[in-house]
Amino acid sequence: MADTDKRLDLSVERRSTKRFPIEREVFYKILDHRAAAPPSGAGKTLDISSGGVLFETDQRLHSGKRVELSVNWPALLEGGCPLKFVAFGRVVRVENTVAAMHIEQYEFRTRRTKEMPTVPDKAAFSALSSL
């Protein structure tokens, strides 16, 4: 009789959440309260699920470290406001410069689309006020 235990079949997906192949620029910061300047860097997401993120980094990360990820989300809020996906969690697997993170908490934040306007100089303000 053939062994039909699906736990041993490597072709069977055992993850409980679906992974989505979303490739976006990612910024990360290692959350280490002991570091004067916590290590940070950039990379690219490879896939995202409700349970984790697989991403490439510009340097090798270490398993077990707490990390904050920030991704400019491809969808807009109400058709016009850009969003940023921010996730907090722990690095659970590393292979060279590819890291897998387990998401412990996440949120969507609105993000700026342009630089803040500059403050007009006194001459420009005076010219506007005389109109």
Write a structural description.
With 131 residues, the protein is mostly beta strands. It has one domain: Thrombin, subunit H, CATH 2.40.10. Helix content is 6%, strand content 47%. The protein has a 6-stranded antiparallel beta barrel. Strand 4 and strand 5 form a beta hairpin. It is globular and about 40 Å long. The N and C termini lie far apart (93 Å).
Total count of domains: 1
Intertermini distance? 93 Å
| SSE arrangement, N to C | EEEEEEH
Number of strands: 6
Classify the secondary structure makeup into a structural class.
mainly beta
Q: Mind describing the biggest β-sheet?
A: 6 strands, antiparallel, barrel
Widest sheet: strand ordering = 1-2-3-6-5-4
User: Can you identify the CATH superfamily?
Assistant: predicted glycosyltransferase like domains
Q: What does the average pLDDT come to?
A: 81
Instruction: Detail the poorly predicted runs.
Output: 115-119, 124-129
**Helical element count?**
1
The level 1 CATH classification is: Mainly Beta
Multimeric state: single chain
Radius of gyration: 22 Å
Question: How much helix, percentage-wise, in residues?
Answer: under 10%
- Globally, the shape reads globular
Quote the beta fraction: over 45%
User: What's the CATH architecture name?
Assistant: Beta Barrel
**CATH-assigned fold name:** Thrombin, subunit H
